[in-house]
Design brief:
Radius of gyration: 20 Å
Mean pLDDT: 90
Structural class: mainly alpha
Order of helices and strands: HHHHHHH
Shape: globular
Number of domains: 1
Number of strands: 0
Helix content: over 70%
Low-confidence stretches: none
Length: 230
């Protein structure tokens, strides 16, 4: 079985498991788990908000590793993975910011504040969104892949800054929670949703890689035909 076929089989399996995990996690989180004693039903946003950031870390890390590999090996398949990781990461980045804003309005009194955690996540989103815009403006595939790889590599440096922002600066955002600080009835669905979002992100990346491969093949064939006719 070819590598691309193995990737797609893996993606299909991840997608099927994601559906099961999402169903179980949402049921346990929205129906079975008790409301928070302080925030009440509002706390249930956590079951989408936090897993979104887990997916962001996974996808941006995939883009970072693939970009490094492309710069070293100059193989198109790594560029495809970098593009997929960045694109899917932006989707989850937006999801995390939206759910965070919905959570912040009744908690902090505003949808948005220039808190260090929120500011660094916004910068992260702008960086990778800029990565995608940059790709759209560059026509030569080799130059585009090389420049995009450099942007993704630099952009990933913001990911650990986002994570440690609540420890390095005074912030409205609460520090990272752990199983010891979350009720056991809430930890179970939260963990399931984290797994579900990882599986969902994996599925989406494999599908985007397949599309990028098709686009890349068509683009190079068109360039070769243009060069031959020229």
């Amino acid at each position: 079985m070819a590598q691309s076929q193995r990737v797609q089989v893996l993606g299909t399996a991840a997608g099927a498991l994601a559906v099961v995990a999402l169903g179980a996690g949402l049921y346990l989180g929205l129906v079975v788990a008790p409301p928070d004693f302080q925030m009440g039903e509002l706390q249930r946003i956590m079951y989408v908000h936090f897993p979104s950031w887990i997916a962001v870390a996974l996808t941006y890390f995939a883009a970072f590793v693939a970009s490094i590999l492309y710069l070293v090996k100059r193989q198109d398949r790594f560029d495809y993975w970098a593009q997929a990781g960045a694109e899917i990461g932006v989707v989850f980045n937006i999801t995390g910011l939206i759910t965070g804003s919905l959570w912040g309005r009744p908690t902090w009194g505003v949808y948005w504040t220039w808190d260090p955690r929120l500011t660094t996540t916004a910068i992260m989103l702008v960086t990778f969104a800029g990565y995608l815009v940059l790709r759209g403006f560059m026509e030569d595939p080799d130059t585009r892949a090389r420049v995009a790889a450099l942007v993704a590599t630099i952009g990933f440096l913001n990911v650990p800054i986002v994570y440690f922002s609540v420890k390095w600066w005074r912030t409205l955002h609460q520090p990272q929670s752990s199983p010891s600080t979350v009720d056991s009835d809430m930890v179970r669905p939260l963990r399931i949703m984290m797994v579900a979002f990882v599986l969902l992100a994996t599925y989406l990346m494999t599908r985007r890689v397949a599309l990028a491969e098709a686009e890349g093949t068509a683009e190079r064939e068109a360039l070769q035909m243009g060069a031959a006719n020229g």
